[in-house]
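User: For my dataset I need records formatted as: sequence, then structure tokens, nothing else. Please produce one.
Assistant:
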Amino acid sequence: GQLPVVVGRNGIAEGLIVVGDEPRDGWDDTISQLGARGTDIVVLTGDDKEATDFFKRHDAVTHVFATVPPEGKTATIRQLKSDGQVVMVGDGTNDAPALAAADLGISLGGGKALAADIAIVDNDIRSVETAFDLAGAARRRVKQNNLLAFSYNGIALAALAVGFFNPLTAAAAVIAGGGLIAVNTRRKLIG
């Protein structure tokens, strides 16, 4: 997965430089922890197969697609979405279309953050797990708030049906209940 470059002067080779990408610090732990949550890890890269072989040996990685051009990444994301929700984590400007095509796009710094739903500005892959935690907390809060809203509205409508409230009072109670739930959500997310 390394690219050798011969360096010379006046037509004579004087040295060899080997160029290649190094995996990000923390990639192994991040992939392991996401895999332990039951997440299928798919590596989708424009790099050649030799540069991605180490991913194939990782227990949490289910598939590795190498030498994929940007339009191929977007097509692959769309295909994967037919099996369930897809989160795309990208770090290159050529990842922007795939980030936009995913259910949730996470950008690791740089200018392609506009195409992503979440931008990790410190460029640290370990922050991806934090993004998953925050998304899970937000989902739980939305479910809780919906349950509270349905319960509150159900009680208000039942009170209206039995004549405890007049229609104007019931409407105000339903609106106030929604407002209280929204305040609760905002306070919880900020605090």
